[in-house]
Amino acid sequence: MIWLSIAMAFAARALLVLLFLPFSALDKILNFKAAVGQAAEAIPSRLLATIAIFAGLGVEIVMSLAVLTGVADRIAALVLAAYCVVTALLWKQFWKVADFRLRGPSGGRDVFWDFLKNLALAGGFLALAFGAGAAGWQGFLAHPLASSHPYAHSPPGGTLMDQRPTIPYWHLWTDSDGISRQKRCAMTEFELKSMRPPADPQWQGSRTSGNMTVMVTVQPVGWVGTWRENPKPQWIVPLSGRWFVEAMDGTRVEMGAGEISFGGDQHCRDLDGRRGHRSGTIGDAPAVLMVIQFDDAAAPSSPCEFR
After folding, report:
1. CATH for 167-294, options being 3.30.230.10, 2.60.120.10, 3.40.50.2300, 3.30.870.10
2. Distance of CA 81 to CAs 50, 54, 76, 77, Å?
3. Which of 42, 59, 167, 259 could form a disulfide with 187 if both were Cys (CB 3.0 to 4.6 A apart)?
């Protein structure tokens, strides 16, 4: 069953790129002059048309292989989606065909169907790039070169996992000018394994070792703190209530239960009385936060380093 699952996943991707690899790529190689001539219909310069064919050949081969192997497949799928849209707009211009009609023989309608097929194929590649869920694009933007791990599976007898989780978080960090900023990031590098056999497998992210301090803090209703840095690099996990964090660049983020953040705004400089961040509660309930401090680790020098 495992091999059948892998074979089906591969077959789905193979069907998606079949138009490009091998057929369209092979056609460009075997009929290169004709391909350049077709490109010249939309690109006036013969040299540019030739360059476009070489570029298209590279996209069709390299990006298709990336989709098939799962190596940087999400960014490759996005490139192929853009490729489908561009080729549709340049060479499937049904609106310029004189005999476009809805009934009876019509060359324009045939081109129209080809135009729609290009867009439908682009939609398939976008689904591959961003995933089926509404939040998939966040993980893509955080780590566009990451793999979707299309052939991952659970051990025999387990539940099939066809997509790794995407866990968003806010990263408060200090840039090279000493200004604190916040960026929306996502953790996507999870591995399906047992915490300790014989426990059933679950998705596990990267582990951080070293001395740590764990505490629960409660911010009262109406509490607003002064500008300050986080005392140490630390994860902050809201357990209940809502709170906000404002960075020196003016970014203000409001978070509720389960919306995690990392406070890495150490070594900021003073700027008009602001240094680090400002935070406080929102609403009519206290904000209960779990804090995991790194006692002996430096804050990441750039955002989104937790993957």
Report:
1. 2.60.120.10
2. 22, 18, 9, 6
3. 167
